């Protein structure tokens, strides 16, 4: 059911790769809620060809940009303003990648060139998007910028590797830039810390199946899926959350406030019995 929460608003969505992507679901919901969109991803991701299907459903244009490249971001933001005939109301940063995770290098055996790439793609790109928008005065007053994070920024989770550092940096950038952008232009900057979700990036996380099962058992409301996340992002782009800024907002069914749940304890006891044989 749509509520017209984004009627007349214009937004840029980074990071829709395929139907499983969180950004894909956000684009569908934003369109349903009345927004006009520009979709963007790297030239490599665009060559996979799936984004065109989303552009056709949402009647959006696609502009390629590597989010680590400031010139490509300038081109994206200025072309988007031409398409919209004015400034932007909201932006979703839904970008993450770790070459160390991809190559299976553990946290105590990182490749430092890869590490820098992880930070550049997954965190600094957010700073670059904000800085380019600010230099082009591209976002309307009371506009909203959201990036997607994960609880590994605060708590160590086995196997999340250097992405945990990237997420800590991402959340810090939201606070630091949120102050400046809020003070000067009344623009909101937040991160949404999402449950583990079965997407292309999510599938790269070590032991994702067991992690999904663990957080499902630990969360009183269960894991939030990509569609749930999209609904939450829409509220943050809407005028209903005008005074929310510089926050890391947990969207995880309660996981981040839990220590141990009955369901997780029962499973743990079960495995313990299996191991000791009683
Ligand atoms: N899936 C999860 O379990 C989970 C949980 C919490 C947060 N997140 C975060 O959600 C966001 C979206 O990930 P997803 O799970 O939808 O996976 P996804 O693989 O569908 O999306 C990741 C996107 O990042 C894009 N990307 C990579 N390098 C880029 C670059 N240089 N410039 C521009 N785009 C680039 C990819 O092309 C892809 O579209 C990421 O920030 C991820 O860390 C995911």
Structural description of this entry:
It is a single chain. The chain is α/β, with parallel strands linked by helices. The chain has helices spanning 22-32, 43-47, 51-58, 70-84, 99-102, 112-135, 163-185, 200-203, 208-218, 226-237, 262-276, and strands at 10-14, 36-40, 61-62, 88-93, 139-149, 188-194, 248-251. Strands 3-2-1-4-5-6-7 form a seven-stranded parallel beta sheet, with helices on both faces. It is globular, with a radius of gyration of 19 Å. Bound molecules: nicotinamide-adenine-dinucleotide.
CATH homologous superfamily descriptor: NAD(P)-binding Rossmann-like Domain
CATH architecture, by name, is 3-Layer(aba) Sandwich
- N- to C-terminal distance: 51 Å
Strand content: 5-15%
| Domain tally | 1
Going across the biggest sheet, name each strand in turn. 3-2-1-4-5-6-7
Mean of pLDDT: 96
Pick out the low-confidence regions. Answer: none
Major pleated sheet: 7 strands, parallel
Quick take:
By secondary structure, this protein is of the alpha/beta class. The protein contains 11 helices and 7 strands.
């Amino acid at each position: 059911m749509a509520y017209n929460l984004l009627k007349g608003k214009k937004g840029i969505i980074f990071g829709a790769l395929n139907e499983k992507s969180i950004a894909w679901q956000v684009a569908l919901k934003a369109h349903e809620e009345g927004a006009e969109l520009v979709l963007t991803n790297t030239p490599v991701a665009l060559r996979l060809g799936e984004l065109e299907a989303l552009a056709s459903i949402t009647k959006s244009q696609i502009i390629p940009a590597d989010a680590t490249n400031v010139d490509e971001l300038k081109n994206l933001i200025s072309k988007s303003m031409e398409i919209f005939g004015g400034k932007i109301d909201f932006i979703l940063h839904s970008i993450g990648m770790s070459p160390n995770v991809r190559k299976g290098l553990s946290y105590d055996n990182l490749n430092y060139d890869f590490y820098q790439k992880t930070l550049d793609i997954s965190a600094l790109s957010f700073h670059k998007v904000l800085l380019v928008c600010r230099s082009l005065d591209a976002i309307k007053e009371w506009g909203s910028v959201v990036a997607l994070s994960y609880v590994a920024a605060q708590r160590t989770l086995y196997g999340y590797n250097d992405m945990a550092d990237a997420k800590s940096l991402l959340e810090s950038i939201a606070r630091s830039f949120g102050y400046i952008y809020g003070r000067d232009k009344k623009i909101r900057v937040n991160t949404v810390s999402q449950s583990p979700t079965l997407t292309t990036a999510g599938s790269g996380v070590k032991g994702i199946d067991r992690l999904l099962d663990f957080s499902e058992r630990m969360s009183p409301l269960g894991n939030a899926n990509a569609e749930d996340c999209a609904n939450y992002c829409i509220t943050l782009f809407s005028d209903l959350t005008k005074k929310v800024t510089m926050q890391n907002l947990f969207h995880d069914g309660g996981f981040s406030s839990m220590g141990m749940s009955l369901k997780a304890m029962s499973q743990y006891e079960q495995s313990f019995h299996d191991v000791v044989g009683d």
